Amino acid sequence: MADPSPVPARHELVQAVPLAEAKNHLSALVARVEKGEEIAITRRGVPVVRLVPDPGEQNLRAGRREQVAAALERLHQLRANVVIEGDLRAIAREGLD
To answer: What is the pTM of this model?
Structure first.
């Protein structure tokens, strides 16, 4: 008989870490989760806890990435219309005066 509970497709990508190892390397595990990984903590080989990224933080980061991408695109557009003639060092020195 098939298991009726849905299993997410990314289930296979979750790394299992024994509890003792998780206690010794918690900061490193949290850093990995912040980057988007999911980690299952096991006790005697049985998964008991799953570390997953905070969905709110992921949305915030996605929004920031979009803002940065839009700003970079705008800078690219502005730069495309700028023509600098002359010695850049001299121009920079003039700006310091």
So the answer is: 0.48
Tell me the domain boundaries of the chain.
Answer: 10-53, 56-96
pLDDT, one tens digit per residue, over 29-61 is 999 998 889 999 999 999 999 999 888 776 777
What does the DSSP assignment read for 18-61? Answer: EHHHHHHTHHHHHHHHHTT--EEEEETTEEEEEE---HHHHHHH
Other CB atoms within 10 Å distance of the CB of residue 25: 13
What fold does the segment set 10-53 form as a domain? YefM-like fold (3.40.1620)
Under 8 Å between Cβ of 25 and 51 = no
Chain CA centroid to CA 9, Å: 20
Whole-number Å distance between alpha carbons of 59 and 83:
38
